Amino acid sequence: MKIKNLHDLEMFVRAAELGSLSAAARQLNLSPALASAGLKRLEAELGVPLMLRSTRSLRLTREGERLLPAARLALDGLRDASEEIATGRQVVREHLQISLPSDLGRNHILGWLDEFQAHWPEVSYRLQFSDRLADVYRQPVDIAIRYGQQPDSGLVALPLLAGNRRILCAAPAYLAAHGTPASPEDLVKHNCLCFRLGDELHDHWRFTRDGREIRVEVGGNRAGDDGDAVRRWAVAGHGIACKSGLDIATDLAAGRLVRLCPDWQGEPAPLSLTCADRRQLSPTVVLLREFLREKCEGLAGSLTRSLVADGRI
């Protein structure tokens, strides 16, 4: 079924973003009755309900959630193409719902997005900070920034820093009080700060050297499902952590954390930008991905330079 009236589609998108059909009508200079008629017409054309409405609330149905990102993409494409033809310049305008990892998201990407928005002020965001893997099929998320190898799930994954790894680290205060492990096997004698993802506790840490891999079961008195909290515990001297190099780059450079067992490599922790479908790779998303890739490479470069300068790699 083809959508015949793009005004109805725009009204649907505005209502979903504002959470109110009457607010969408005001923005589009329509009467509430016309807005309601447009939504009913759109639902009739598609043959499914798109919104569940009451006098005080509005929420999307599952079909409405599926339609929303495609509707935004279609309207943005038409608007941008029209403006590009009229002005002869590239237009970057989009509302993006982005899922970010807690530590890198709060301490680095948040500032990078401010910088991106300063260059492209017609881009807007709705951000979700969580180390739980966002379900880009079911959740209202356009793109997700994720650590780790991506499962073969049909997701589109664009690398931001493929060579990123986890680094074993601790604060100078902890090492002064408890000693420095000479090898990963010594971690069993130390208080290790573990990360929990859902029901899975990451208490088996893997390391490689000269083609040899070892797996160490660690334990400690603290575990958390927020990567930023684990890093803060390490900086405060509460134990040893095994964190993404990107997460702790500035802490290592400032001396708040020290890299341990530098002859051993931690597990790979590649960082990617993911989405559910290649049709979501709008010009704005492609531009943002390139911007974030350059920022991640710059942060990784500063990490390498600081470790080389201190003789830690």
Draw up the topology in text.
Elements: H1 6-18, H2 21-27, H3 32-46, E1 51-53, E2 58-60, H4 62-87, E3 94-100, H5 102-119, E4 123-129, E5 143-147, E6 156-161, E7 166-170, H6 172-178, E8 194-197, E9 200-202, E10 204-209, E11 212-217, E12 223-224, H7 227-235, E13 241-244, H8 245-254, E14 258-259, E15 265-266, E16 271-275, H9 283-309
Parallel strand pairs: 3-4, 3-5, 8-12
Antiparallel strand pairs: 1-2, 5-16, 6-16, 7-13, 7-14, 8-9, 10-11, 10-15
Describe this structure in words.
The protein is α+β, with helices and mostly antiparallel strands. It folds into 3 domains: 6-64, Winged helix-like DNA-binding domain superfamily/Winged helix DNA-binding domain (Arc Repressor Mutant, subunit A), CATH 1.10.10.10; 92-163 and 270-303, 3-Layer(aba) Sandwich (D-Maltodextrin-Binding Protein, domain 2), CATH 3.40.190.10; 166-268, D-Maltodextrin-Binding Protein, domain 2, CATH 3.40.190.290. Helices cover 42% and strands 22% of the residues. It has 9 helices and 16 strands. The protein has helices at residues 6-18, 21-27, 32-46, 62-87, 102-119, 172-178, 227-235, 245-254, 283-309; strands at 51-53, 58-60, 94-100, 123-129, 143-147, 156-161, 166-170, 194-197, 200-202, 204-209, 212-217, 223-224, 241-244, 258-259, 265-266, 271-275. The strands form 5 sheets. Strands 4-3-5-16-6 form a 5-stranded mixed β-sheet, with helices on both faces. A hairpin with a 2-residue loop joins strand 10 and strand 11. The longest helix is centred in the C-terminal third of the chain and has 27 residues, at 283-309. The radius of gyration is 24 Å and the shape is elongated. The model has no long low-confidence stretch (mean pLDDT 86).
